[in-house]
Design goal:
Blueprint (H helix, E strand, L loop, with lengths): L2 H9 L3 E7 L3 H12 L4 E5 L14 E2 L11 H17 L4 E10 L7 H14 L8 E4 H7 L10 E10 L3 H14 L3 E4 L1 E9 L2 E8 L5 E11 L5 H8 L5 E14 L7 E5 L5 E7 L2 E5 L3 E3 L8 H14 L13 E12 L18 E5 L4 E5 L6 H14 L17 H13 L14 H9 L2 H11 L15 H10 L5 H8 L2 H5 L1 H5 L4 H9 L3 H10 L2 H6 L7
Parallel strand pairs: 1-2, 1-10, 2-7, 4-12, 10-18
Antiparallel strand pairs: 3-6, 4-6, 5-6, 8-9, 9-10, 11-14, 11-15, 11-16, 12-13, 13-14, 17-18
Helix pairs in contact: 2-6, 2-9, 11-12, 13-17, 17-18
Bound molecules: flavin-adenine dinucleotide.
Length: 549
């Protein structure tokens, strides 16, 4: 039986303390935190885990430097503390990264003032990162010669952090952590309805891959449906003080346009910050911030043209970027929380709307709703959900804080020692941005020891299967068994970032893609291959099957 079938079998007819609806970052941390504290947990997502908003972020873990513009100092402090805590817990997965901001006539601030702001930001973040710097015009040009210096007065540099692999893989680590301690989690399972009686909730579920329907019961439901929380609450008759509004953001992935391993930051023509973020051999340009009314969005020509125009005006590239340079795109909506009675958001500057989250607990219905949230804030959300569920009468064990974080440093050292002694990094034939040992440790932690064993037994396990994909054979074996990959997009776009980095056209003809399908899907390989490559590109860009429903 596959990992998914085993989990669906557990959910079917199961009785749980908590049923979590939604497997984005909010649902995944909730599952990991609750299950580690002894709750009987089920978590379902109607698409793949992290298949909606949580795969469309900028991959940044940040204290919110830009919220200082609105003097939201308490929020900045809160996010900086969350960022620092995450960096400490995930030394291999989250890295500090420098932001180099060029300040031109579109910047609302002079370099000296921005410098003061970045120092305050550093202090608010308890000096956890490297100190900020102010750059003169000349020093900025030297630091990044690709910046078009016309109109630029100078710059600043400060630190935040980024998710080295990608947001959705980071989310999956929490799903894995929940599975490890007995939670029943299944992707492509939708909560279609639920009713309540004196004993608790009866949930009606549909396997969106096969169409099969089944039920389970739960004392508490946690609504972690991201942009869909309001729709689910309305459907189940749950009343709330808050609601979600949507801000659309897109990213363009292009060949690497700057050599710097820093994030370049610019103010666009509307005085909004946008970035060029390194992603291995690629650069990610984004994002936008546009008020929309629908959760399902696509990259429109005008969004794309806007970003291309902005970046071409700010970088002095050998050749301006065009549509043909775009390898892939990301597009999603930020679920932003507002109070239902507060209508001021309808006429305020959209980009100034706070990025806080809110949790609502409904004791009469034993229901918790998570509104908003950020990847940066995920540990707090896990803890807040545990507190909310306790309030609803579910007894939890003490929080030993073992539901997040990487194995201890000594274990990492032992892994790298074994990898060095077996000559792992010399087995690679291709140049890469990082060593294979670094990559395996980051992606798999303790599970990487078993991979070393497999490579010792059969060195071809260290061969890259798809050229340029940064994935070796042994990873595919383990992914097939332990990462609940149901469709090819789950692997290419979410457990890995292969489709973002290589693009769909390259992948279709890539040597090794068929072997990858066979390893992942066995007898079902051809069907999954055809399903992926025949699907609508916009549907895949939007991220998930629910995008079109
Ligand atoms: C452009 C952009 C850039 C961003 N950049 C950053 C950043 O750099 N750093 C940061 O910290 N944050 C960032 N964010 C914010 C962050 O990505 C989101 O706040 C976060 O991913 C939301 O997670 P979620 O779990 O609430 O929602 P989602 O990830 O959308 O998860 C909700 C899930 O619920 C599922 N679902 C809905 N209804 C049902 C149902 N009935 N049954 C089963 N499943 C259901 C959906 O399929 C979906 O997968 C960004 C967001 C965007 C859009």
């Amino acid at each position: 039986m596959s990992l998914r079938s085993t989990n669906i079998a557990k959910i079917r007819g199961g009785d749980f303390d908590v049923l979590i609806v939604g497997g984005g970052i909010n649902g995944a941390v909730s599952a990991a935190a609750l299950a580690s504290r002894g709750a009987r947990v089920a978590m379902v997502d109607r698409g793949d885990f992290a298949g909606f908003t949580s795969m469309q972020s900028s991959n940044l873990v940040w204290g919110g430097f830009k919220y200082m513009e609105n003097y939201e100092l308490a929020l900045v402090r809160h996010l900086c503390v969350s960022r620092n805590r995450l960096i400490k817990a995930y030394p291999a997965n989250l890295k500090e990264i420098r932001f180099l901001a060029a300040l031109d006539e579109h910047s609302p601030y002079k370099p000296w003032f921005a410098g003061l702001g970045s120092t305050a930001y550093w202090a608010i973040g308890t000096f956890f990162t490297k100190p900020p710097k102010v750059y003169s015009r000349e020093r900025l040009h030297k630091a990044e010669p690709a910046i078009d210096m016309q109109g630029v007065q100078g710059g600043i540099e400060y630190s935040d952090a980024y998710v080295v692999d990608n947001d959705s893989r980071f989310v999956f680590q929490f799903v894995r952590s929940a599975l490890n301690v007995g939670a029943a989690c299944a992707n492509y399972v939708e909560l279609t309805n639920a009713s309540r009686d004196a004993r608790g909730w009866k949930a009606h579920l549909t396997d969106t891959d096969t169409g099969e329907t089944f039920d389970c019961t739960a004392r508490v439901i946690v609504n972690a449906a991201g942009p869909f929380v309001d729709a689910l609450n309305d459907q189940l008759g749950i009343e709330s003080k808050h609601q979600i509004v949507y801000s659309k953001g897109i990213h363009l992935i292009v060949p690497r346009i700057v050599s710097n391993e820093k994030v370049l930051a610019f103010f666009d023509d509307t005085e909004r910050l946008f970035y060029v973020i390194p992603m291995g051999p690629r650069s990610v340009i984004g994002t936008t911030d546009e008020r929309v009314t629908e959760a399902v969005t696509h990259v429109e020509d005008e969004d794309r043209d806007f970003l291309l125009e902005q970046i071409n005006a700010r970088l002095d590239l050998p050749k301006p970027l065009t549509v043909d340079d775009i390898i892939s795109t990301r597009c999603g909506v930020r679920p932003l929380v507002v109070e239902k009675t507060d209508k001021s958001h309808t006429d305020t500057d959209w980009t100034t709307l706070s990025r806080k989250h809110a949790l609502e607990v409904d004791p009469s219905d034993s229901f918790v709703t998570i509104f908003g949230g950020k990847i940066t804030d995920c540990l707090n959300i896990g803890e807040e959900v545990c507190a909310a569920v306790t309030e609803l009468g579910v007894r939890l064990d003490k929080d030993r804080r073992d539901w997040y974080g990487e194995p201890p440093k000594a274990t990492a050292q032992e892994f790298f020692r074994q990898a060095r002694l077996m000559g792992l990094d010399k087995l690679r034939k291709r140049a890469s941005f990082e060593t294979l040992s670094t990559r395996l440790w980051r992606r798999y932690g303790m599970r990487a020891f078993a991979m070393l064993e497999a490579i010792r037994d059969d060195p071809t396990m260290a061969d890259e299967i798809i050229d340029g994909a940064e994935y070796v054979r042994v990873e595919l074996f383990y992914a097939a068994k332990t990462e609940m990959i149901t469709k090819l997009d789950d692997f290419l776009r979410r457990r890995s970032k292969i489709s973002l980095v290589l693009g769909r056209e390259v992948l279709q003809d890539a040597d090794g893609i068929r072997e990858a399908c066979e390893l992942l899907f066995g007898d079902d390989a051809d069907r999954r291959f055809d399903e992926y490559f025949s699907a609508d590109v916009r549907e895949q860009a939007a991220g998930s099957p629910q995008g079109t429903s």
